[in-house]
Amino acid sequence: MDHEATLDRWKRFTYVDNLPEDISYFRNLLEKYSNIPPEDIDCLLLRTRERLWEVAMYPCIGRWSFLNLQSVHDPHFYTVVQRLRDSAASGAESSYPEALLDIGCCVGQLLRKLVHDGIDPTRLFGTDLHPEFISIGAELFRDEGCGLTFAAGDMLDPRDEDLNILDGKITLVHAGNFFHLFTWEEQVVIGMRIVRFLHPGTIDAIIFGRQIGSHNPRERQGGRKSFLHNEESLQRLWNEVGVKTGTRWRVQMNINEERVVDIPGFGVEDRYVRFGIYQFPLRKAGTATADT
Asked: Which of 22, 45, 191, 205 is at 20 to 30 A from 185, Cα to Cα?
């Protein structure tokens, strides 16, 4: 199959022409946060999606998934928002300020939702491989210089200095539709980079999100290789990250049994999952504590 035919087949399975009907959260955000007239929103979103697709033909772009703001329904989201608000309220009394990083932030839609809900934008950070996504986001939301911090860089490259701006600043991490794009070894590298982002002294970081997992954890073949997890395999991976970084982590995962993954390259055992990865303190010397 030639390259053009392959791209046509990919678009058939991953590209939806029309806007989804239920994007009320996103519409409301554009109306209330960006002051965009309701009658202008459809054309703006169609134009924006075409620009994003020209940068990267991701299923989340082609299928409009970046519009659904579904992370706001994740119980972790409520915990994270409360921690950000409590930290702001405690001010100088807090041992360190809470700060959220959105990895693979696309146009920064989740961060804008948080700002609209009253979270201090200076405590919100986003990173994406594609700097074009970040600039398109600033145009979409009409908020250049709003106080959010973005860094475009490669999470797989420990030497990428463009990400150094995040080092030592983060306590909370959202990673939606992200880890399932990478192999086991690459996920370990990403995990180590995330630990670099943590504020010194952080002992209760949370990493959470939604992705594709599997009842049958394995390296996915065909196209770009990647590793799909169940709860046990994800725990093993973060045990490895912990050993390499001197940290400890506990993994929790919920599998959505009702929704089968219908993207090319995924199997019948693959499911959408929500996960939480919780940091907890290292054992003190001489203390007997069961490993997870």
From this structure: 205
Q: Could you tell me if 289 and 266 are in contact, meaning their C-beta atoms sit under 8 angstroms apart?
A: no
Q: Where do the structural domains in the chain lie, given as residue ranges?
A: 71-279
Inter-residue contact 182 to 190 (CB < 8 Å): yes
Q: Match 């693979």 to its residue by tokens.
A: 104
What sections of the chain are H helices per DSSP? Answer: 3-14, 24-32, 41-55, 59-62, 75-90, 109-116, 131-141, 184-197, 231-245
pTM (2 d.p.): 0.92
Cβ-based burial of 115 (10 A; exposed 0-12, middle 13-18, buried ≥19): buried
Which pLDDT belongs to residue 193? 98
Contact 176, 211 (CB under 8 A): yes
Among 97, 87, 88, 114, residue whose Cα is nearest residue 25: 114
**Residue 221, class by beta-carbon neighbours within 10 Å (0-12 exposed, 13-18 middle, 19+ buried)?**
exposed
The pLDDT mean for the chain works out to 91
pLDDT above 80 (res 165): yes
DSSP label of 198: B
Mean pLDDT, rounded, for 66-77: 86
Q: 71-279 has which CATH code?
A: 3.40.50.150
